[in-house]
Amino acid sequence: MKANLVTSKLLIRSFLVFLILFVSVNSVKVHAQNSIESVRLWSAPSSTRVVFDLKDKPDYSFFSLRSPNRLVIDFSDSKTQVDFKKLARSDHRVKKVRTSAPKNKKSKRVVLELDGTYKLVVFPLAPTGQYGHRLVVELHDTVKPKPVVKNKKADENRDVVIAIVAGHGGDDPGSIGYKGSYEKHVTLAIARKLAAQLNKKAGLKAVLIRTGDYFVRHERKPRMARENKADLLISIHADAFTSPQPNGASVLVQSARRANSEFTKVIANREKESQLLGGAGEIIKNTQDDNLAVILADMTKEFTTQSSYVFATEALKELKKVTKLHKTKPVGLSLAVLTAQDIPSVLIETGFISNPKDEKNLNNPAHQKKLAMAITSAIKNYFTQYPPKGTLISATSSLTHRVERGESLSMIAQKYRISVRNIKDSNNLRGDSIQIGQVLTIPKK
């Protein structure tokens, strides 16, 4: 009996020792120091982004100082072996990144010496794709653009402006190809070629929203397009899937649900958001009639939605000539880049970077040029049919239409948003009969 009691006591003691050791080991794991693994810096025309890659979720605090301008970040219970001297040599906003005396022995203090006063945005990012935990610092220029003085004569016979958004950029590589190519590089290459093609055409002007390898926030893209008075926004992307089989191009438009959601936001904050509604914005902002505001805003939204779909269909028609299509009709998805209420907007998936053949083509300059030329043709065709008032295209273009099987005069009139009588008068037609292949002159509206 005594032997059993002794044995039981020994077992209990052994278990307690094991339990203490287990808790101690796990406590060490829980309280293991975080580590700043690397630091990346990206410069954009109006902002700089500094990204700290960390081993675990950051526990941090920050404050700014002036004379001289500095941003001080304290990483709690952290260490690093990063050589900060190699950073910030090519950026004009960040003069130097260095460490400083920490709050305590276990923390790490990092100081960004700045060249001026900037709007500071600091936020953590959870792991995604190839990246782990991150702390992002954004420095935004605070200089407001000078107010634009409208010149009516300058607006006459103006160019049609196309805003081109190259997807991803900077610390956001986008999808990574079957053989390791980055979507952000492919999209920028195609965007540049598209801009070059458009700028060769009389009456067309391209504006690149991203001109280099840096990140532009999604909500900024439509605003930048509006600041440049864009008549159309095109976002260039490359698709991807978990398997290498899917291939081909697609054209995406804003989903009806997202469009209605954005519309509701604009109406709810119409004093602040009136600039998002184009020409009707001032009326909507200043009117005391809520019903009138809703009607005008809804008309703007519907026109933009319809125009986006029409252009997307034209883009697919031209892309089909140079590449395989993944989807033959426009696809509606909820996309932040397409939220402009007053600018027709589409996102073009130029192919699947996860497909070996598509990836090879997307990195081929000759294929990139074919895609750019196809999109250019779609843009030219679209604006020839629907030229914005006051543009060179609307003043000089002579439009014709070749009758296709199944078309009637009423269908053609509806397509060009004119009356059947106008078509008849311009083509000396007595009746309503037309022949397949017949070329009709479409009068200007």
UniProtKB/TrEMBL annotation:
InterPro entries: AMIN_dom (IPR021731), LysM (IPR018392), LysM_dom_sf (IPR036779), MurNAc-LAA_cat (IPR002508), N-acetylmuramoyl_amidase_3 (IPR050695). Residues 399-442 form the LysM domain. It catalyses: Hydrolyzes the link between N-acetylmuramoyl residues and L-amino acid residues in certain cell-wall glycopeptides. One of its GO terms (biological process) is peptidoglycan catabolic process. Its EC number is 3.5.1.28. GO terms for cellular component: outer membrane-bounded periplasmic space. The keyword Membrane does not apply. GO terms for molecular function: N-acetylmuramoyl-L-alanine amidase activity. It is an enzyme of class 3 (hydrolase). Pfam families: Amidase_3 (PF01520), AMIN (PF11741), LysM (PF01476). SMART domains: Ami_3, LysM. Keywords: Cell wall biogenesis/degradation, Hydrolase. Belongs to the N-acetylmuramoyl-L-alanine amidase 3 family. This is N-acetylmuramoyl-L-alanine amidase.
